[in-house]
Design goal:
The protein is α/β, with parallel strands linked by helices. The chain has ten helices and twelve strands.
Length: 389
Amino acid sequence: MSGRVWSFTSESVACGHPDKVADLIADRLLDAVMESHAGYPRPRVAAEVLVTGDRVVLAGETSHPLEEEVVEATAREAIAEAGYGPGDPEFPCDGVQITNLIQKQSSEIAEMVVGEEIGAGDQGIIFGFACDDTPSLMPLPIHLAHRLARKLAEVREEGIVDYLRPDGKTQVTVEYRGRAPVRVTQVVVSAHHLAGIDEATLRADIEREVIRTVVPPELLDGGARFLINHSGSFTAGGPGADTGLTGRKLVVDTYGGYGPHGGGALSGKDPTKVDRSASYAARHAAKNLVAAGLARQCSIQLSYVIGMHEPLSLHVECSNTNQVPLEDLERALQEVLSFRPQQMIEKLGLWDIRFGDTTLYGHFGREDAGFSWEKTDSTEQLRAAALGG
């Protein structure tokens, strides 16, 4: 093994992190609109959420408003799903104040995305990414950071570490040699917990039940450093102690900073918004190119303008790992896959997705969730098209 030795770090957040609480409420509101108005024309939703103190503020717009009681019930159920159940001491789902400012969608916007074939619901630049670090074709740092964040929830919910609370953050640094990840050098965990817990006990429990059950031992052989609640006590957490906003964890949602990402939030948006649908389609395309052996790493950029059916541009970058010229990869993508909004939605079955299921622990790389954009179902067609040119 040869090449430059370098490191890369990614972070994730727990289900009760304030920003993720906001994202989850937004996505569950989207699901509620979709379920209430399943016919044609399909509903349009762009939900924004702020959580802070004992308050939840809902904003945005939709073509099909929900009844007030449905909005409130959905928001409270999402808060409970994030870990703050009835009577919670910091952010009780049954006690927070909810202000609903969601309004009717502008007719000017609506008219741009309706018709026999829908156009892009907004302008934007979109990225998809894949690399061969892991079987899921995700970068190893974000892959491990997400698994650690999910493990925090599991040991709390199963009572294994029963003094944990819903908030928390994780961070993983991976050392690479050339393009190959060789070891984990640092793991950071900030775990929200009940008062009165001995810090040494907490650190031992997190190392044993979370870190060492998630990170493969062979990646820790080089003597990784563990920084667990490094600042000390973490008893005040969640929206009761900090403010959360929809879309503020885009790097966590996508590739942990290892691959580029667009500027638009994913959560709270229906599939006509290319921030969401094209991000999923671009991930599917990049993953299939890598799975086909056409590159070890692939980044795809798409750009859109509101109302148009075709992307304005398509760009492929493979960091010199491509096995065929980049122009052949771009041509293969255009021959095999479509990045027109309606066709992306139909291929990936996005009208049938429960978007709240995508919110936590990243939108990509979660093969156990069965998301359509994680399927490697176009590898043979892409390989034939790329090599046939």
